[in-house]
Amino acid sequence: MLYQRTSYSEITSSLWLSLRLQLLGALIISFVAMMAVIGSQGNLPISFGTPGLVGLALSYAAPIVSLLGSFLTSFTETEKEMVSIERALQYMDVPQENIYGCQSLDPNWPVQGQVEFQNVTMRYMPSLPPALRNIAFTIEGGTQVGIIGRTGAGKSSILNALFRLNPICNGKILVDGLNITDVPVRDLRARLAVVPQSPFLFEGSLRDNLDPLRMSDDTKIWNILDKCHVKEEVEGAGGLDIHVKESGASFSVGQRQLLCLARALIKSSKVLCLDECTANVDTQTSSILQNTISRQCKGMTVITIAHRISTVLNMDNILILGHGILGYVVMVELNQEKRKKRKKKRLQNTDHGNTSHSYER
Fold first, then answer.
1. I need a surface site. Which of 65, 96, 266, 347 has the fewest CB within 10 A?
2. Cis peptide bond N-terminal to 130, omega within 30
3. Domain check: are 123 and 178 in the same one?
4. Burial of 87 from C-beta contacts in 10 A (0-12 / 13-18 / 19+)
5. Is residue 232 part of a domain?
């Protein structure tokens, strides 16, 4: 909406300026013609001379509109380019984030995968309202949690705070009992896995995209690709050594998302974050992603950001955010109890010979 308002103002200003320039050009030409007619009768002390000079004056007055338009266009383009220089200077003044930490890490950290937010408040700019307002919750290790809410509710801000992409104003974030502000940024981001909303692949070989540090062998990579249901596509494209074009144009959006999931699983992290990874894919790919996550991520702490509650319905817990405030927690254990009751009822019907009428929804 803001972009449309800005575009509408720009178009309106351009039309207003064009109309004024056209009127100015018509006024100048009319003035020259009128003075030539009046001067030819000898009523003025100033003479225009020969008709050739009159024609020359009119020919020079006609293109004045286009000349003025070109001048103003060049002026505005120069102003826009100066804004780019101003932004570059602002980026130069941005303080560098602290990449060092005072906490020494265990090689296997995080071991449990417990994530705890303690009264966390975060804002992107001092002049903006808080994106997270006193958020407090605990995600036990090995559980799958869904975070839902409308656009601007603060869902992605939780991941930004967890990965220290933006500093928090108040509170603490603990991972396995360690405050992440004491952990070096590179180690923190290296120990956590994430699947972004917009899948992205770097230009280079597929092997380097899936395992940039060459920490896994080909057997493990092919096994993960098979679990993510993208092994056949990779084999058909030429294997792990194929050259991936810029932004992963060699694959479709769904295939790129599955490859990003495979990259996260190859990392073997205890904490996996999914930032609306099913938002830009079709229904079939979304189903494959959800089934792969539920089957292959057992024992991992999975944090899923989603718009639709159906995407996270099978999670252990569901957090609902609104305007940066944690509303309430939905325990999906109720669904598990219902499944147990239906299973028990089905067994009872089986004992009575009514198996043909027993179905588990």
1. 96
2. no
3. yes
4. exposed
5. yes
Residue 354, domain member (yes or no):
no
Same domain for 144 and 80: no
C-alpha angle 254/257/260, rounded to 5°?
155
CATH of residue 232's domain is 3.40.50.300
If asked whether residues 222 and 257 sit together in one domain, one would say yes
SS3 8: helix
Phi, psi torsion values for 71, nearest 5 degrees = -65, -45
The answer, as to whether pTM is greater than 0.85, is: no
What mean pLDDT do residues 32-52 have?
69
pLDDT in tens, 301-324: 999 988 777 778 788 888 888 888
Q: Which two tokens stand for residue 34?
A: 């009128």
Judge residue 324's burial from the number of C-beta atoms within 10 Å of its C-beta, 0-12 exposed, 13-18 middle, 19 or more buried: buried
Question: Which amino acid, 263?
Answer: R
Could you list the residue range(s) of the whole structural domain that residue 64 is in? 16-92
Domain count, the chain: 2
Q: Which helix (H) or strand (E) holds 304?
A: strand 301-306
3-state helix, strand, coil in the chain (%, to 5): 50, 15, 35
Tens-place pLDDT, residues 56-110: 777 877 787 788 878 888 888 888 888 888 888 888 887 777 777 777 788 889 8
